[in-house]
Amino acid sequence: MSADAVGPLDGDRATALPRSNGELVFETPWQSRVFGAAVALQRRGALDFEEFRAELIEEIQAWQRSHHPADEGWAYYERWQAALERVLARRGLVATTDLEARAAALARAWSHDH
Amino acid sequence: VSHSHDLDDPGLRAAALEALLVEKGLISTDAIDAVVEHYERDLGPRHGARVVARAWTDPDYRTRLLADGTAAVAELGIGGVELNTLVAVENTPEVHNMVVCTLCSCYPWPLLGLPPKWYKDPAYRARAVAEPRAVLREFGLELPQETAIRVWDSTSEVRYLVVPMRPDGTEGATEGELAALVTRDSMVGTGLPAAPAGVLT
Prior knowledge:
heterodimer, A: mainly alpha, 4 helices, 55% helix, disordered N terminus, B: alpha/beta, two-stranded parallel ribbon, 11 helices
């Protein structure tokens, strides 16, 4: 990992460092839901956190291989969500096709025609 | 006008996943609520601050903390599977410690709550190791050249807590007053404790 390939942490980009202690834990409600789902699954023994973390690392590394470190599309909890989906699919708990069908149904329900 | 939701919308995927998990009986909405509430409301850097303040006021506790962090924080009722093994590292005039997780975002949740956004960013994760002194400068922390910087890379097994140096001018302070000076960033090593009121730094 070369330091020159890495953008500045400062400035007005998305990667600028918030320095206060008072920032929100989650930026949007869905982030808290997908975080809470993983921890709740672990607490009841339905998710092995080591397996999940390995998947999360793989997701993050894959994103980093294809993006600049200062890319504004970086979203930690999107990687978390993707990692959780993959572990649950591999374990046979939630099939990707089921998830996508449900997302499509929700998309229709959430869309509104005027 | 019809506007549709992109199937890659993360909020949509998260909602779909939660709905399926609940329908399959794997978890309940209440269980997720409880986790979120716990992390948003109960956990946070004040638990770590209590540990640091105790180490500043009780030399025996400090020795135990540096020898076995997991056991020492358990004395204060902090721990659990989400902490794993805790290693406490102490700042001195010679050595400044700084924590990162280069691979993902491992962090001592029960002591500090969830990590701030910058801790999870690719830029911090890469640059903390490659150029720690420059990163600390961007946090407003200019260390003397003679102070060495030691960067600790968290893993799934080991989490780190930085024990910062006790600020000058706090000789008569109580443990509670001291804990109020211990910032989150000072326990990650990207900041220093706050100065006590009335002391100019």
